[in-house]
Amino acid sequence: MSLKTPEQYRESLRDGRVNFMYGERIEDVTTHQEFKVPLETASQDYDYESPGMRDIRTYTTDDGTEAHRVFQIPRTEEDLHKRLEMMRNTSILGGTTAVYMALMNARGQLGQVNSQYADNVESVYGLARDNDLRAVEAITDAKGDRGRRPVDQDDLDLYTRIVERRDDGIVVRGAKLHITAACLAHDIVVMPTKAMGPGEEDFSVSFSIPVNTPGVKIINQTYAHPDMSTFDYPLSAAHNMPEGFIIFDDVFVPWERVFLAGEHELAGVFAHALGLWERIGGLVAMVERSKLLVGIAQLLAEYHGISKAGHIVEKTTELIFYAELLRMTLDNSLRNYQTTEDGMVYPSPLEINVGKYYGASNWHGMVRHIHDISGGIVVTLPSEADLRNEETEGYLRKYLYTKSEVDVEDRMRLINLIRDLTADAYGGWELVTTIQAGGGLAAQRIVTYRSYDLEDAKQVARDAAGISS
């Protein structure tokens, strides 16, 4: 068991994996310019030597060795708090590696149907932990005509499926979409996109394979580019990850890496388990981001000399309500943790789904407040190049001036942050993923309805109405 260094992580990606981007076959993601920033971002997760990082990012396993905390099976509320601190100090690739928590969450139910599936989960999890590997969760299928079942599609490959069963494993075909950081991971953990029914056994498949497995091809897209200025794009230029469109072109999966192969009644178990851990990450990010919005609003209002205006105080207070409700919901989910039969604890699904739904459904309204405070300059501000140009710098410093204690360059940086976060590169990605990551709003509504104690609520209503039974 060993922890990788950032250099060893980079070297581990030179394994013959097949990547494409903008029509080009990428021979080596570690040297291609388009992957420079994403690789730097992901490599930081392997920094165990910076002050405080080893304690945040590692834990001691049962056999006394060190491993990344992303693999720690939470057993107490304290473990959950430590995990959240780790999540605040990791890249999105570290976040997607939480897919192993979903597998371990589902292991007990899998074992009741097929003990080999449970053993496989344990084995794959141990392999990743002991070798400090990163993984992505691949759940969303192409889906084709959403009004038809997988088995009724014109092309059955629109849902990832088993096309052959062999003595030594299965062969799968299909595609998984919206897989963040797939090109920089070591393993791909595939799960059914939804619950399946009778006749959909071939689509009820889950497994884990290395990214360089023959037949796996990744077509990449990104909202950011390597030549972006960190002045103009403080978020996009410094932290970004490609989105992967993963093709499974008759990929062989050995039985020891299969977690589900036809047991349709368990397909929904995976979707639920993954949704929970993905939404935990989403809620943690929302809590951090909501505090950022409050700070942006207040700082910008002070720069503009309007911080005491009634409508500004009102908007900023709405942002504070948003931030605090998200924080309290996350805190409450940890206090009300639940426990699996084998002792793994996890945040309350009710609170996590309520928080994720509230944060996502109200994000656009919070952005509206920021835009209302900032004005149109968010999308019309000249660039850093204009500020550095001798012919135009004077004009910008003259007409972007507000008051002596506000540096024009600082004001430009704040406005650029607003644009990048809410109205441009990163902002476009954030606008969609805030709703869709972890499943759309309907998914959170379904889980919340199923998690809420409706029987207790009905009894409260009976008591109030004087109904005896």
How would you characterize this protein structure?
The chain is an alpha+beta fold. It has 3 domains: 107 residues, 4-hydroxybutyryl-coa dehydratase, domain 1; 128 residues, Butyryl-CoA Dehydrogenase, subunit A, domain 2 (Beta Barrel), CATH 2.40.110; 188 residues, Butyryl-CoA Dehydrogenase, subunit A, domain 3. Helices cover 47% and strands 15% of the residues. The chain is built from 16 helices and 14 strands. The strands form 4 sheets. Strands 2-1-10-11-7-6 form a 6-stranded mixed β-sheet. A 4-stranded mixed β-sheet has the order 5-8-9-12. The longest helix is centred in the middle third of the chain and has 38 residues. The protein is globular, with a radius of gyration of 24 Å.
Q: Looking at CATH, which topology of the largest domain would you report? A: Butyryl-CoA Dehydrogenase, subunit A, domain 3
> Averaging pLDDT over every residue, what do you get?
93
Distance between the termini: 60 Å
Number of domains: 3
Low-confidence segments: none
Task: Indicate the CATH architecture of the largest domain.
Answer: Up-down Bundle
Shape: globular
Q: In brief, what are we looking at here?
A:
By secondary structure, the protein is an alpha+beta fold.
How would you describe this structure in keywords?
single chain, 469 residues, alpha+beta, 4-hydroxybutyryl-coa dehydratase, domain 1, Butyryl-CoA Dehydrogenase, subunit A, domain 2, Butyryl-CoA Dehydrogenase, subunit A, domain 3, 3 domains, six-stranded mixed sheet, four-stranded mixed sheet, 15% strand
